[in-house]
What does this fold into?
Amino acid sequence: MRFKGKVALVTGGSRGIGRAISLRFASEGANIVLNFFRNRSAAEATMAEIKSRGVEVLEARGNIGNPQGVDKIFAKIKEQFGKLDILVSNAALGSFTPALDIDDQAWDLAMEVNAKAYLHCVQRAKEMMPSGGKIVAITSLGSQRYIKGYGSIAVSKAAIETLTRYLAVELAPQRINVNTVCGGFIDTEALRSLPAFENLKQQVITRTPGERLGRPEDIADVVTFLCSEDSRWITGQTIIVDGGFSLT
Ligand SMILES: NC(=O)c1ccc[n+]([C@@H]2O[C@H](COP(=O)([O-])OP(=O)(O)OC[C@H]3O[C@@H](n4cnc5c(N)ncnc54)[C@H](OP(=O)(O)O)[C@@H]3O)[C@@H](O)[C@H]2O)c1
It folds into this structure.
């Protein structure tokens, strides 16, 4: 019960990787603020699973890419808990297109929901973490390597990793650790919805020394480590969690 009594906000906490992170924190005693946007039934199912672990869950529906939506979420947290201990910036959106074909709409969507939302959440979280806290953002290998069609999302993920280093230095005096977990290919609905999923899956498994796709729990375990006391001397880092895929 490493997180007993703590309050953790997980953006996009209803499905996929965010769901695994929310459940992992709940299993270790944290009260969860669950943000989602479009899929209410998935959120309700995850909230029921969280409650069954004996902790509180606060529903925080809203578009994380909208600053007013972010303000409302933090106002709710303040009202219900009066504090925040952990922020996991996980929600992401974006469209697939060759880099040369990215239009303003695709660029702005990825930057707003992924990178700008991270900054906005951290700016508000800081006010609710007066005596320390933990912040983790989720990125992907596209921030550092070429993934076909991934350009607009990749740029937003690179922005997150750079921002993490700046935030880590500026928030260190307030005893807030800020890190990024950069995932390889993880078996979620988002990945399965890609038209070339089966082909991609085989390629990834063949190239991965760990010989499988990543699982949401692989990411959740590292996120909880980075939010625990054990990682107190780690800040500003991007930890790659990909079973060795990026080594080959
Ligand atoms: N899957 C992978 O292979 C992989 C690899 C590396 C990193 N990642 C990263 O891991 C994170 C989660 O990915 P995933 O595969 O778990 O995605 P997913 O299954 O599509 O889940 C996305 C989650 O984000 C929420 N969300 C999306 N847009 C939102 C918005 N504007 N405001 C609030 N919530 C929003 C969704 O809620 P609603 O459904 O209610 O909208 C959902 O809970 C992302 O940052 C992604 O880039 C994924």
